[in-house]
Amino acid sequence: MRDTRESRLLLVLLIAIAFALITVDIRAGEESPVDGARQAAAAVFGPVEKGMATGVDPVANAIGAVRDSGERHNRIATLERENTALKAKLGSDDQTRSRIRELDEMLKRAGAGQYGIKGAEVIGIGAAQGFSWTVTIDAGSKDGIERDMTVLNGDGLVGRVTTVGPDTATVVLANDPDFTVGTRLEKTGELGFATGQGDRALSVQMLNGKAKVNPGDRLVTFGSRGNKPFVPGVPIGEVVKVDPSRGDLTRTVWVRPFVGFSRLDIVGVVVMPPREDPRDTVLPPKPEAPKPTPTVTVTVTPSASAGVPGKPADE
Q1: Max Cα–Cα distance, the chain, nearest Å
Q2: Residue 106 DSSP label
């Protein structure tokens, strides 16, 4: 349509008519004269609107699904983070409980032997000190640690202090080849010297070549003069093999140490020796041998008529 004077007058007229119809429709309410026209328009354009809505709804649903999916993704991510944190907490709690058990066992040993101990944590292994079996602990001279003090844990003898710094100390372990400690055999009191063999059993030279030693017998530390480097009564290990006696002055036995040197964590340095030798009191009680289960034997005696088939029992 061209922009002429007539077209402008027509546009103004149409606008005026539209305003008039709107005014009449609003004032008439339900009895509006244009209601029939509205219904006719709805009948014509309704199917078109429905078709368009049908085509648009999947898009809207998809948008909603994406939005919900994002919310679910965020929710899942939050739950995964919570689960990870919970697993870490459970792992931490398990480790804490394990260390509490270690500390409790160590305190029991110290209490049984009347040792005054300073607790410490293993913070390094022997690579820094060479090829020897050593560990570094987080306690030093500031904590009252001195050279040649006995080191133990809840299982038994760990080693002795060799080097002391202000905040740390080096401990040579009982399985080191240069480590030697005096031993006392449980009950009989037979003496010997245990030497470390790395990851193998300790070698113990019994001073009495005729000493009666059997697998399963246990040994503790004999102790040193002035209680350095070893206090008496600390559990060492259990005999696993006894070399045959050949009439020599000494006899060799092999002892599995109670301490797991490859999994050390919490240890105690004996800063105060016992007043008296605890001898075997620090050793835990031996487990009782299982009692044999009684066997019940039932003997069945056949009757006189049992072997005659088809014959009544009362004949």
Answers
A1: 141
A2: H
Q: Are strands 116-125 and 134-137 parallel, antiparallel or unpaired?
A: antiparallel
| Residue matched to tokens 């009684």 | 294
- Residue 193: CB atoms within 10 A of its CB come to 15
**pLDDT 10s digits, 81-114:** 766 665 665 556 777 888 888 889 999 999 999 9
Question: Which tens digit of pLDDT belongs to each residue from 14-38?
Answer: 777 766 666 655 555 555 565 566 4
Q: Flag whether pLDDT at 122 surpasses 80.
A: yes
* DSSP of 245-288: P-S-SSEEEEEEESS-GGG--EEEEEEE--SS--TTTTSPPPPP
Most confidently modeled range among 35-39, 40-44, 178-182? 178-182
30 burial class (0-12, 13-18, 19+ CB within 10 angstroms)?
exposed
What is the number of other CB atoms lying within 10 angstroms of the CB of residue 269?
26
**Where does residue 29 fall: left (phi above 0), alpha (psi -120 to 50 degrees), or beta otherwise?**
left
pLDDT given at position 56 = 46
Mean pLDDT, residues 117-125 taken together: 92
Residue that the structure tokens 């005999």 belong to: 239
Q: What is the pTM of this model?
A: 0.64
**Burial category of 113 from C-beta neighbours within 10 Å (exposed 0-12, middle 13-18, buried 19 and up):** buried
At residue 16, φ and ψ (nearest 5 deg) are -65, -40
The residue to which tokens 């609003």 are assigned: 26
Amino acid letter for position 53: A
Query: Pick from 158, 241, 167: which is nearest to 196 by CA?
Result: 158
Task: Record the tokens describing residue 168, joined without a space.
Answer: 């740390």
Measured between alpha carbons, how far is 34 from 44 in angstroms, rounded to an integer? 15
Helix (H, G, I), strand (E, B) or coil at 81: helix
Q: How far is Cα 63 from Cα 185, in angstroms, rounded to an integer? A: 81
Query: What are the residues facing 136 on neighbouring strands?
Result: 124, 170
